[in-house]
Design a protein that fits this description.
By secondary structure, this protein is mainly α. The chain has helices at 7-14, 18-39, 49-57, 61-84, 91-108, 120-131. The longest helix has 24 residues, at 61-84.
Length: 136
Amino acid sequence: MGRMATKEIFDWVLNDLKIIKATSTIIRVMDDMASHKILSKKEDMLHRSVECYMKQHGVSEQHAYLELNKPVENAWKDVNDGCLRPTAIPMHLLSRVLNFARNGDFMYGGWKDIFTNVGDTLNDHITSLFVDPVPI
């Protein structure tokens, strides 16, 4: 990999580029939607984005999910744009950002929180990666 942590790279990350904000949006909103039902059962938890949207707009839970998914879709477009558009940032660094967004999609996709509620899905993926890897 070589030397990756140059001043230019740190400046790039600190400038809040669209791809960094988009990745944060993907993970935050998907986490909120996936953990909504779990966290709403706890009385001491602050209201999350799903409940806030429902109260603010007077809509059903399903409608709130559909509306909150729109920024996630737009964020994916920004991530793709950031990876496909030529830039001075090396692709191996852009791929780190892309993989972080992919990880959020894996952990919170389908409105299920397999990060907090570790079950068979996550266990099977970890097993396939580290215990029974595909020989290359």
